[in-house]
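seq as requested:
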Amino acid sequence: MADKDLSLKEYLADAAVFADIFNLAFKRYHFVIDPKELRELDSVQVMATPLKQPIAREGGGKKTVGYRQRVHDVLKMMVLVEDGKQKEMLLSIEGQSKRSRFMPLRVWQYEDHTMAWAMKRRDMRKRNECPLPGMLNVVLYMLPGKWPGATRLSQLQQRPKGRIAMCMNDVKMNVLTVEEISRHDIDSFLSEIGVVANAIVYADNPRKLWRILGKSKKAQNLSVRTVGIINEYTNLGMEVKEEEERVNMCNAKEFWMKEGEKKGEKKGVKRGIKQGTQKGIDAMIASLQEMNITFEEIVRQLQKQFQLSHREAMRQVRKAMA
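C-alpha cells:
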C-alpha cells in the first residue's frame, strides 16, 4: 500500500476528524457523533471463502476453504441509546483520491463482509438478544470538484423498464467531497479537516487560500500530521522543522505568494504569445487582402506562417473578412 494511502488512513482514524466527516455528511438528517463515543475496531476482517476445487495438503487431507482479507480504510463503532435501548452502529470511511467506476459495488462488498463478520461476532453471545448492528459508510473524495462516478449500484447495472426494477436491490453510496467541506467555516469543525479541504481545493490559487486561512484560528496552530496530509495531496510543499510540534500555516504566506506569482507569470507569457500571434494573423490577412491575394492563397500562407490547421486558417480569414 502506498505511503500516501497509509497517511490518509491514519489521519481519518483520528476520532475528531472521523466525527467531523460523519457530522457533515449526514447533517441534514441531524445525525451527530461525539468523538468520545467512538470505539476502535480492527478495519481488517479475515473472511473464509469456499474453494472451487479442493487443494491437497502436505501430509494428507484437502484444503476446502481459502481465507482473504477485506480492508476498510477506517472502521469504528458507536452505541446509540434510543427508547431506553442500546443500538450498535458500525461506521466506516473510505478515502478516494481517484475515480473508481465501481465504487458502489466495492461499498456493497465491504458492507456484506462486515455484516458477515458481525454475524460471527454475534454467535459468541446470546442470539436472541443480539441483533446485527446498523452500518453507515462514507466515501471521502480527496480531489477538487464533484465525485465523477456513480453513487448507486443501479447506475452500473442493466435494469428492465417498469415496476419490476423497483424489486431489484440497490445500494446507495454516501459521498462527501473536500469541495463540500471547504464551503463551511474552518473553525466550526472539531478537527483541522477544514484546513486540509481548503488547501486541496485552492492549492493552485494561493492568494484565495491565504484570504481564507488568514481568518482561521485553526490554521495558525496545525498539527504536524495535518501538514503532512496537505503536502501529500497538494503542491504547497510546506516545510516542517524537526523540533516543531505545531505549525502556523499562515507563515507560509510568502512562499504561496511567490508560487502564485510564478504561475501568473507563466500564464501571462502564454497569454502574451497568444495575443501577439492573433495580431500577427490579423495584420497578415489585411496585408494580403490589399494585394488582392485570393482566399485560398491567404489560407495557405497562414498555414505555412503560423502552423495553423486548414480549418483554423479558413476560420481566421472568414472572421477578418466579415
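The CA atoms of residues 41 and 76 lie 5 Å apart.
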